[in-house]
Amino acid sequence: MAVYTEVSDEDVRSFVAQYPLGEVVSCKGIAEGVENSNFLLVTESGPFILTLYEKRVDPADLPFFLGLMEHLAANGVTCPQPVRARDGEALRTLCGRPAVLVTFLKGMWPRRILPEHCAGLGAGLASLHLAGAGFPLKRRNALSVQGWRPLFEASAPRADEVKPGLRDALAAELDHLERSWPADLPAGVIHADLFPDNVFFRDGKLSGLIDFYFACDDLLAYDVAICLNAWCFEPDGSFNITKARLLLANYARTRPLSAAELAALPLLARGSAIRFLLTRLYDWLNTPAGAMVRRKDPLEYLHKLRFHQQVRTVAEYGLDPASLGL
Amino acid sequence: MAVYTEVSDEDVRSFVAQYPLGEVVSCKGIAEGVENSNFLLVTESGPFILTLYEKRVDPADLPFFLGLMEHLAANGVTCPQPVRARDGEALRTLCGRPAVLVTFLKGMWPRRILPEHCAGLGAGLASLHLAGAGFPLKRRNALSVQGWRPLFEASAPRADEVKPGLRDALAAELDHLERSWPADLPAGVIHADLFPDNVFFRDGKLSGLIDFYFACDDLLAYDVAICLNAWCFEPDGSFNITKARLLLANYARTRPLSAAELAALPLLARGSAIRFLLTRLYDWLNTPAGAMVRRKDPLEYLHKLRFHQQVRTVAEYGLDPASLGL
User: Fold this and answer.
1) How many CB atoms lie within 10 A of CB A269?
2) Which pathway does UniProt place it in (chains A, B) (predicted)?
C-alpha cells in the first residue's frame, strides 16, 4: 500500500493546470506500488496515473526511466507513457518531490498465476528485451553481483535473528556467485523487477508492463531468472515446471536463448534469489514495527535459492535444449 | 489506507459478470476509507467504486445504507448510487464479504478547508436533512448519548495512559451530558460522519457526499455539531469562527434552525466531541502497534471538548440568532 505523500486537492489542480488535459475530475491514492506514491487521477481527458517519487528513487535516474518508457512504446511494448506538460517536459515537481503523469494502462495483474500467464510473460519479456536495443541511455544495475556484498554486510550481524545459520549460508553463496558470475552473455536493458504486480493481463493475454523503476543494463538472461523466481513457485513453495517451461519456451520463441545463456540459467536464478533475499532481509531488519508497510518474508527467497542450488541443467526447469535446436 | 481484503482478478471478473456493465478494464485498491475495502473498478461502461464491507459493518444495516443512498438521490442529493446486478439486487457477496458496486462520484475532498467549503457544506448538510424526510427505514444511533458510557467503560481503566486525569474528566463530562441531553429537538436521518474526506468539491462547489455507513436516525442539529467539530478547527487547534458562521448561516438558509436547536448547539458539540474522543480512545488503546492503520489522536477531541465547555451561546460560533429572525 503506497501513498507516502498527502497531496492536496489544490496541489493537484495547479499541477494538472500545467497540462492540456482539462480540469481535474477526481484523484484517489492507490494501494499499489511499494516505492512511490501513486494516484489514479481522472481529468476531463480521461484517467492517468500520477506518481510522486519517494526517497528510494534517485532523481538522477528519472530521465533513464522516462526515456525508456517512451523508447519501449515506440518499439511496440505496451507500457505507461509519460505525459508532457505544455512546456514539453514530462518530469515535474509536486509537493517537493519529482512527479510524473503517465498514461493509464488497461488490465489487471494476476493474483493467482496460471500457466497461460507464464506463457504470455515469456513472450512479453523477450519483446521487451528486443525493444530495448538501441536505447541510448545507460544505467548500471546497482543490485547485481557487485552490489550484493555491501548489502549482505549491512545485514550480516543480525541475519541469524531471522534464521540461525543464515549469515554463513549467505556468505558461502556469495563467494560462489562472485567467483562464477558470467560476464560474456548478451546484455541490454532489463526490467529487473517483473513480478506479477507489474504485468497486466486482459482475458488471459498480456496487456502491458508497468513500473520500470529498477530497469537497468544487465544480462538479459538474468531478467529471465528473476521471472523464474517470481512466477514459477507455488504459494506452498513447490516449483511449477509447467509454468517454467511455458515461460522459457515462449521467451525463446521471440528471442532465442543461446546455449551459454541456458547453461548459466541455474546460476543466474541463484543470483536473482540472493538479490531479493538480501533486500528483503535488509528491509526486514530495518523496518520499524509500526511502519505502514507490509514487510516481505526474506526466507521465501532462501527457499528458492536452495532449490536452484540443486539444479544442474535447464532441463530441470522443464526446457529441453534440443527443442530449441541446441 | 484501506484495502483489507485482497480480491483476485478472477474474483473481480466473475463478480462484474453479474452486471450489465461489460468487461472489467482495471481494478485498483484505493487508499481511502477506514472501515471497508474500496476499489476503483473500471469496466467498459466507465468507473465505479467496489466496496467490500469488513467486520465493523453489520450486514443487517446494509439495506438501510443502500436504500438511503437511493432515497437521497431521488430527492436531489448527489451521492453514490448502488448498482443493481442483472437479478435486480445491489447487495451481493465477494470473497466472503457483503459487497456493493456504486456509481463513481466526481470531485475531490478538500485537504485544506477554506471558508467556501464550510459554506457549501452547510447548505449540503441541510439539503441532506430535508431529503432524508420520508425515508421509511430506521436505524438507531448506537454512537449517541446512550452508547457513550459502555464505550467509556471499555477504555476507562487505561484512559490515563493517554493523558493523566482523562478518566475523571470523561466521567464528569458524561454525567453532565446524560443529565442534559435534549430529547425534543427535530430528528431525522443524519450522516453522522460528515468529515472532510466524505465531502467532494469541484471548483469550490460541493459536488457530492459519500460514505453513509454511520447514517442513522438522530437529532438533526447533532449532525451540525459533528460538522462544527470536523470542519471549523484549524490544524493548530484554534476555532475558526468565520468557517463556523458560514456553516451555520448556510445551513439555516436551507433548513431554518429553531431557537431550541441553536440553544442546544454548544451541548450537542460537546456530545459530538466526546463521541469521537471515545471511539478514537478505544482504537488507540486497542490497535496493535503493527497494524496497517493510522490511529487518530483522541486528544484532538479532548481539546475540542474543552473549547465547547466554555461556549455559552451560539453567538460564540459566529452566528447572531437575530440574523435568523430569532
Assistant:
1) 28
2) Amino-acid biosynthesis; L-threonine biosynthesis; L-threonine from L-aspartate: step 4/5
